[in-house]
Amino acid sequence: MSYSIKETYLTIQGEGAHTGKVAIFCRFTGCNLWSGLEKDRANAECRFCDTDFIGVDGLGGGKFNSPEKLTNHLLSFWQGKEKPFVVFTGGEPLLQLDENLVKILKKENIEIAIETNGTLLPPRDIDWICVSPKAGTEIKLKSGNELKIVYPQDGLDPGNYLNLDFNIFSLQPMYDTDYEINLQETMKYCRTHPEWHLSLQVHKYLNIP
Fold it and tell me: What is the CATH number of the domain that holds 194?
């Protein structure tokens, strides 16, 4: 299998339970909830995505025709001596992240994290699974490490997800033109439902990718 990567970069994780952790971000091309084209947004299953996941022309992007070549590409970004930490995102990473790639990554002692919409099932041996449900979609991935909801979403009640098997439940204000209102609503919800952790997109405040 070949892998299409929009961008790869070394950064500091800016949201969720791993906020502050140095990570290699690998953004796969493509998503199963939206084409990425503005003309399709109104009819997409996910309408609020602000990420460009079309093509392979981003910083550190490209096509890789083997899991070994992609793994070597990822390792070229790591500057520390400790175990590399790679976050696979998208788009939807589980459209491409397969058992062969996971096997090679683990062989190189890489810690694997994914950020997924939860509509697809992952291969085994992923170290950290973060699911971000989208309103109106069927969640197939019902267990993992963190469930992180972008809030508010029409037709999505966070309370309906508390029965799923996750260690951490995070609520993150939607980053759009109503961000300040969304932030206040998210904090209000967390105060009255303390099982939820507030997740902020710190990288946007720091102006880093």
Answer: 3.20.20.70
